[in-house]
Amino acid sequence: MGVLDRFRLDGKRLFITGGSRGLGREMALAIAEAGADVVLAGREMESLTKTADEIRARGREVAIVQADVGIPTEAERACQEALTKHGPIDILINNVGGRRIDIPTVDLPVEKWQAILDLNLTSTFLCTRFIGGKMVKRGKGRVINIASVSGLIANRGIGGRSYETSKAAVLAFTRATAADWAPHGVTVNAIAPGGFMTAPNVRWASENPGMIDNFKAAIPMGDFGQPEDLGPLAVYLASDASRYMTGATLVIDGGYTLW
Q: Which of 3, 58, 54 minimizes the C-alpha distance to 36?
């Protein structure tokens, strides 16, 4: 087998949350280009349908599960539907997440705190439990958790520390689950993106231009990442090329956390 052949995903099936837009869309398209079929989970049917059409244009099969996996009952329903109608699943990407709030800790209501933990952390746990659990029983699989450099640092000039907390917990959950599941042939790794100009960050930029300018100025490579930069990394972690890697956190941030 040649080295590039180890990146192929022919005959595999991906389940990805938040897979219709931004980073999720680019990872789904990249993994489809590498040969895998895809099950997309997301809230908005319009964007799900658009991304599904793009995947079909690449010659792959695609299914849609409309659900808000930031709500625990919806996350469980989405996983069960994917397994029942579209299984087995070989690759899981827990991508859904976000900050969504800019509220100082002293003013942060517990229900908003919990909502962000459910969005970023509980969704990752539930999808890993249900879909990753089936991988354990089958003795093979790949789990990829999308964390953030915010799980390693505190962002300046913005509230909503439930985001940093939940993303740090995703990294701990990744390591612990990787240790548990390594004997069962399932790898569990995390990607920690830095600044990428996805739609939510474009919104943050319009509302807080000074903060975004300061963020950009602190990136050694001088600019934000583009969503398509994440695709090749996801293919690597999903493929045989990363066979001997588990429990790792791969930072992709233009050097932002080097300072």
A: 58
